C-alpha cells in the first residue's frame, strides 16, 4: 500500500479522534497530524489557503484548523518527536503494535508523560509502508494499572483498538487482563467483564501454560520488543481455537516493563486447511481411507503394541477379483463408484481399533492388533469377504464382487512393516492362483519366488531406461514362392547377468506391474524406426497389450511415431489378442477405429483360443487373423486340428480377411496348408527371430 493510499484510508480517523494522531513514513518523517498531535508534540502545521497555497500557522493559534481532518507538517520539533520515534520505529521493526511513554513534557503548563501507541500499516506483501501513532497525556507509569485505567490511556485503547480485527488486551506483568477489545471477547466467547476477571493463563491451553510463562519472564527481563508464539487457546465452555499470540511489553522512560499488550490472531481456519491438506496427503482421495504412508505408520504402531501385549499384528491385503472387467465394460467412473463402496464395506466389517486402507487401484489393506493366531486373522478375512460379496447395483445391473485376501502375521515386534505388507501381497497372489474369493497365508517358497519376481520387476524398469531391450524380427511369408511379406517384432531382454531372456520370462511381470505400457511404447517406436530404415517393402507387425489399448491416446501415439519415422501407415500391422477384441470397452473400440482411419491394419493374434462370439470380426475393422500355433502342431496327425484349421481358413475367406497360420515348422505342415488354401504363414520353417531387419527370402 502506498503512502498516498494510507493517507486516504486513515483520513477520517485522524480527523475524528480527540487524541493526538500522526502518520509517519519509514524514515520517521511526519506526513500527517491532527490538531491534538500538534499541540502535544509542538508541531508546526500547514493549512491550505483559499488559493491553494499552504499557509503556516502555529498549532496553538485560534481559529479553525481543518484540512480534511488533518494537517501536513513542516519542521517538527525534534525534542518531543524523539519519544514518538522510539516507539513508532519499534512498531515498524516488529511489524506489530507497540506502546510506551515519552519523557516528561509540558502540556498546558503541566509536566506530563505522553503515552504513545503505534501501529504499522502493512502493504499487500505484508511489509510495513508507514506507521500511525496515537498520543495522549498519561500519569506516571509506575502507578499502573490504576493510572492507565483512569488516564488518557483508556481512551487510546478504547478508541484506537476497539475495532481491530485482532484480539487485543492490556494486561499486568503477571497476566491479569486490564482491558480487552470486542474482537478478543468474540473470539473466546466471553463478555468483557468475564474476560477481565481472568488471566492469560486461563485462556492458554493447559499444556502450554508453563512455556508461555517462561517466555514472558524472559521477555520482561530482556530488551526484546515482543515475543510471538503459535498456540492453542481455550474459550468459554471449553471451546478451542488455534492462533498467533504476540506479547509486547509497555515500557516507561527507563525502559522498565510496566504492562503487557497481548494480541491474539485467530488462525483456526488456516490450521483447519493445513489439517485438511495433511489428511488429503495421508488418505486416499476416492475412498477417504488411509493411504500407504499412513498404513505403514499404523502397522508400525501395531507392532509396537505387541511388545506390551505379547500378541501378534496382522496385515491383510485384498485385491478385488476381475476388477479390470468392470473398468473395461462399465468405464472408469462406475469403476470408481465400485471401489468407493468396497472401501466402505471393508471398513465397516472390521473390529474397533483395526485400520482399513487403500494402497491404490483395487488393492485394499487391513491392519489388525492383538491377533492370537492365523485362525483369528482368517476369521476377520472371512468377514471382509462376506461384506464385499454383498450384491451391488451399478447402472441397472447387479454385481457380486469378490475379493482375494493375503494374510501376513508378525513374528516379533521388530518385524519390518514393509516386509509384512510385502508378505501379505505375496499371499494375495497365492489366493488368486488357487481360485480367488478366498484368503491365504504366505509360505517360504512362495516368499522366495515373489521376492525374485519383485527384484526382476525392479530390474526390468531399469532395463527399459538403460537400453537393455532389443528387438528380433521373425519373417511372415507367402507360401507360394515363400517371399517375405512382413516381419513380426519380438522383444528380448539382454540381462547383464542372465543373458538374453525370452519374453515369456518378463512380459507377464510387465503386464502385472503396469510396466507393459512403457515397454510397449518402446517396442512400437523401435519397430517402426527399424522398418522405416530398411528397404523392405513389407510390413512390420507389433503386438499391443490390453493395457495399452484401454488408455486414451494410444492412436495419437501411433500417429506420432509414424510421422517421426516416415513409415507409411499401411506398412504397420498391430496385433491384438482375441481377448482384447472380445472385451473391447468403448474407449478401446474408439482407438481401434482411429487406427483404422490412419491406415494401420489390425490383426487378431492367437485366433481360435477365445471362447466368445465372433461378432467382433463383423463389428470391428479387422484386416486379418493369425491361427494359433496349437492348431498347427496337430496338422496331419489330429483330424480335429485339420478340420478346425480348414474351418478357420474358410471363415477368413468368407469374411474377405487375411489368414496367417503360426507355428509352421515342417514341410509337411506347409504342404497341407497350401492344399487347403492358406496363403500366408509364419514359423521356424521360414526363419527364426533375428536381430537383423533385412530383405530375406525364406
Automatic annotation (TrEMBL):
InterPro entries named among the record's database cross-references: Biofilm_reg_signaling, EAL_dom, EAL_sf, GGDEF_dom, Nucleotide_cyclase, PAS, PAS-like_dom_sf, PAS_fold
UniProt domain GGDEF: residue ranges: 311-444
Source domain of life: Bacteria
PANTHER family cross-referenced by the UniProt entry: BIOFILM ARCHITECTURE MAINTENANCE PROTEIN MBAA, DIGUANYLATE CYCLASE DGCP
Domain PAS: 153-223
Protein name: Uncharacterized protein
Chain ranges of the EAL domain: 453-698
Source organism per UniProt: Kineosporia mesophila
Amino acid at each position: 500500500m502506498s503512502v498516498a493510499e494510507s493517507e486516504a484510508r486513515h483520513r477520517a480517523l485522524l480527523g475524528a479522534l480527540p487524541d493526538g494522531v500522526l502518520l509517519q513514513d519509514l524514515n520517521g518523517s511526519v506526513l500527517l497530524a491532527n490538531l491534538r498531535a500538534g499541540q502535544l508534540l509542538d508541531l508546526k502545521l500547514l493549512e491550505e489557503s483559499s488559493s491553494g497555497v499552504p499557509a503556516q500557522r502555529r498549532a496553538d493559534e485560534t481559529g479553525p484548523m481543518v484540512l480534511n481532518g488533518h494537517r501536513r507538517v513542516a519542521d517538527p520539533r525534534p525534542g518531543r518527536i524523539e519519544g514518538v520515534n522510539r516507539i513508532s520505529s519499534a512498531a515498524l521493526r516488529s511489524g506489530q503494535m507497540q506502546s510506551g511513554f515519552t519523557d516528561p513534557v509540558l502540556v498546558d503548563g503541566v509536566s506530563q508523560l505522553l503515552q504513545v501507541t503505534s501501529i504499522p500499516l502493512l502493504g499487500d506483501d505484508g511489509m510495513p509502508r508507514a506507521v500511525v501513532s496515537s498520543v495522549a497525556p498519561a500519569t506516571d507509569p509506575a502507578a499502573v494499572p490504576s493510572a492507565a485505567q483512569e488516564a488518557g490511556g483508556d481512551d487510546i485503547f478504547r478508541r484506537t483498538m476497539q475495532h481491530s480485527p485482532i484480539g487485543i488486551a492490556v494486561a499486568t506483568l503477571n497476566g491479569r487482563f486490564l482491558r480487552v477489545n470486542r474482537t478478543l471477547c468474540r473470539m473466546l466467547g466471553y463478555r468483557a467483564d468475564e474476560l477481565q476477571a481472568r488471566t492469560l493463563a486461563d485462556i492458554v491451553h493447559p499444556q502450554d501454560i508453563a512455556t508461555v510463562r517462561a517466555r514472558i519472564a524472559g521477555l520482561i527481563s530482556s530488551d526484546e520488543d515482543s515475543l510471538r508464539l503459535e498456540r492453542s487457546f481455550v474459550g468459554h465452555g471449553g471451546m478451542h481455537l488455534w492462533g498467533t499470540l504476540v506479547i509486547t511489553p509497555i515500557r516507561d522512560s527507563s525502559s522498565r516493563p510496566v504492562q503487557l499488550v497481548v494480541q491474539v490472531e485467530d488462525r483456526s481456519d488456516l490450521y483447519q486447511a493445513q489439517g485438511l491438506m495433511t489428511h488429503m496427503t495421508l488418505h486416499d482421495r476416492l475412498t477417504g481411507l488411509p493411504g500407504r504412508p499412513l498404513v505403514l505408520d499404523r502397522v508400525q504402531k501395531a507392532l509396537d503394541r505387541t511388545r506390551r501385549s505379547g500378541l501378534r499384528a496382522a496385515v491383510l491385503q485384498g485385491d478385488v477379483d476381475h476388477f479390470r472387467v468392470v473398468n473395461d465394460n462399465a468405464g472408469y467412473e462406475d469403476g470408481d463408484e465400485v471401489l468407493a463402496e468396497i472401501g466402505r464395506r471393508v471398513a465397516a466389517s472390521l473390529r474397533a481399533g483395526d485400520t482399513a486402507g487403500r494402497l491404490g487401484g483395487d488393492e485394499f489393506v487391513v491392519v489388525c492388533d492383538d491377533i492370537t493366531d492365523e485362525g483369528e486373522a482368517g476369521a476377520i478375512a472371512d468377514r471382509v469377504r462376506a461384506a464385499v460379496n454383498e450384491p451391488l447395483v451399478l447402472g441397472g445391473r447387479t454385481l457380486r464382487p469378490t475379493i482375494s485376501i493375503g494374510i501376513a502375521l508378525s513374528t516379533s515386534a521388530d518385524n519390518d512393516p514393509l516386509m509384512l505388507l510385502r508378505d501379505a501381497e505375496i499371499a494375495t497372489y497365492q489366493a488368486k492362483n488357487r481360485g480367488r474369493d478366498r484368503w491365504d497365508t504366505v509360505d517360504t517358497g512362495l516368499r522366495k519366488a515373489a521376492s525374485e519376481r519383485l527384484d526382476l520387476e525392479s530390474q526390468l524398469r531399469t532395463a527399459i531406461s538403460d537400453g537393455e531391450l532389443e528387438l528380433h524380427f521373425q519373417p511372415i511369408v507367402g507360401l507360394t514362392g515363400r517371399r517375405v511379406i512382413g516381419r513380426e517384432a519380438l522383444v528380448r531382454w539382454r540381462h547383464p547377468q542372465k543373458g538374453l531372456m525370452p519374453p515369456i520370462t518378463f512380459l507377464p511381470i510387465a503386464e502385472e506391474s503396469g510396466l507393459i505400457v512403457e515397454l510397449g511404447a518402446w517396442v512400437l517406436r523401435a519397430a517402426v524406426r527399424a522398418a522405416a530404415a530398411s528397404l523392405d517393402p513389407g510390413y512390420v507387425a507389433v503386438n499391443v497389450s490390453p493395457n495399452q489399448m484401454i488408455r486414451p491416446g494410444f492412436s495419437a501415439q501411433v500417429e506420432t511415431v509414424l510421422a517421426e519415422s516416415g513409415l507409411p501407415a499401411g506398412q504397420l500391422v498391430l496385433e491384438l489378442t482375441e481377448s482384447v477384441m472380445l472385451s473391447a470397452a468403448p474407449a478401446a473400440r474408439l482407438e481401434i477405429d482411429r487406427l483404422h482411419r490412419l491406415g494401420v491394419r489390425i490383426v487378431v493374434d492367437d485366433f481360435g483360443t477365445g471362447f466368445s462370439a465372433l461378432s467382433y470380426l463383423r463389428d470391428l475393422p479387422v484386416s486379418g487373423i493369425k491361427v494359433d500355433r496349437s492348431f498347427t502342431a496337430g496338422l496331419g496327425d489330429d483330424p480335429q486340428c485339420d478340420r478346425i484349421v480348414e474351418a478357420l481358413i474358410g471363415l477368413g475367406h468368407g469374411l474377405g480377411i487375411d489368414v496367417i497360420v503360426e507355428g509352421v515348422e515342417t514341410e509337411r505342415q506347409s504342404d497341407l496348408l497350401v492344399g487347403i488354401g492358406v496363403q500366408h504363414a509364419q514359423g521356424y520353417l521360414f526363419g527364426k527371430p533375428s536381430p537383423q531387419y533385412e530383405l530375406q527370402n525364406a
